[in-house]
Amino acid sequence: MKTHDQEMLERRVNSEVRISHFLAEQVANAATYFGYPEVPENHDLAILGVSSIAKLHLNNAGDPWIHGNAKMHTKNFEVEVLDKVADLYKIKDNYWGYITSGGTEGNLYGLYMSREYFSRRDLPCVYTYSRSSHYSIPKNGHLLGIESLVIDEQASGEMNYDHFRSELTKIKASGSDFPGLIVNLNIGTTMKGAIDNLERINSILDELAIDRSKVLIHADAALNGLIYPFTEGALDLFALGVTSLSVSGHKFLGAIHPCGIVLAKKSIHSESFTDQWVSYVGSHDTTISGSRNGFLALNLWYLLDVKGIEGYKEEALRCIENAKYLKEKLEAIGYPDVGLFPNQTIVTFKKPEQQIVEKYQLATDGDLAHVVVMQHITKFRIDKFIDDLAATI
């Protein structure tokens, strides 16, 4: 009869064999991970995965700037991450934020803060977003019970500005006081990478003489958080009225675990929440998740510290160039319905045969498919994809 220790050893061996098989399978999948906006395998983070840190309980509960009673956290690293991204968006001295579980939580936080801001002014609010917005946008509106106004999209994936103007005109003509308006601004839609034009939106708000104290703008920049600022013609979003912004850490930043960053103008955040001190934590907490994974902050800090903002700029411009290369290759073989929003990394085209969809793990929507050109999608891999695709025509 086996002893308990022998059984434990046998289970450990079996578990490690299963993990080894799983690793081999996923490494193979990483080579053809084309349809989704993540870096599937990040060797930069291998040091953290095998270090002793990986076995520690690290809980960044509450406000990043207040360390609280417990000492096992990575809040110093978290604040450094937030500072670097806030500096990129030119609000380093006027922001609040935290590291989230992902882009959806960041979008939820922007909406939650906006609702609280208007609630403290006894204003009902309405939430506008285009049909091409990420699925978390309507879901979050439903969770928070906020009236939503869905704006049509253009063929490019941008918001239909004429429809936006028309809907706001109807509200003004209703005879009641204009409500608080929360506008979702897409900085790269999920399928087409389209960017809503903030200057057009501001022009419409001015044209209709809408009180700007009744307007808050949340920017969903999940994939493009560290791409958009480096592109030609990029706007100073916060200077032009954006009040909160959500970025995914497991997309272009390259974290190997789902996570994200939310930034908000400090003045708006301060006016949205009362003192929410939690005595047994020893911190204020206006976050959504409360206890937060401190290892995620360490992941993001390490990537930003090693690569630097300039390193991400180089990668962003390289991905944009490779997206153009993919578009040109698709057009060269006469593939139908090829599209690429200017200065973006998502190339759309007609949905190919199922064998290609499955092999390259393509995201599809109706007759449309896309490739998200991330750091791992090199010209060599693009050429292989084109060869496989051309063989099916």
What does this structure look like?
This protein has a domain at 52-147 and 197-304: Type I PLP-dependent aspartate aminotransferase-like (Major domain) (Aspartate Aminotransferase, domain 2). The model has no long low-confidence stretch (mean pLDDT 93). The chain has eleven helices and 13 strands. The longest helix is centred in the C-terminal third of the chain and has 39 residues, at 294-332. By secondary structure, it is of the alpha/beta class. A seven-stranded mixed β-sheet has the order 1-7-6-5-4-2-3, sandwiched between helices. Strands 10-11-13-12 form a four-stranded antiparallel β-sheet, with helices on one face. The protein has a two-stranded antiparallel sheet with strand order 8-9. The protein is 40% helix and 16% strand. Helix 5 links the parallel strand 2 and strand 3.
Rg result = 23 Å
What is the CATH topology classification name of the domain at 52-147 and 197-304?
A: Aspartate Aminotransferase, domain 2
Number of beta strands: 13
Helix content: 40-55%
What structural category arises from helix and sheet content? alpha/beta
Number of helices: 11
Task: Report low-confidence residues grouped into runs of 5 or more.
Answer: none
CATH superfamily of the domain at 52-147 and 197-304: Type I PLP-dependent aspartate aminotransferase-like (Major domain)
What's the story with the biggest beta sheet? Answer: 7 strands, mixed
Q: What integer is the average pLDDT?
A: 93
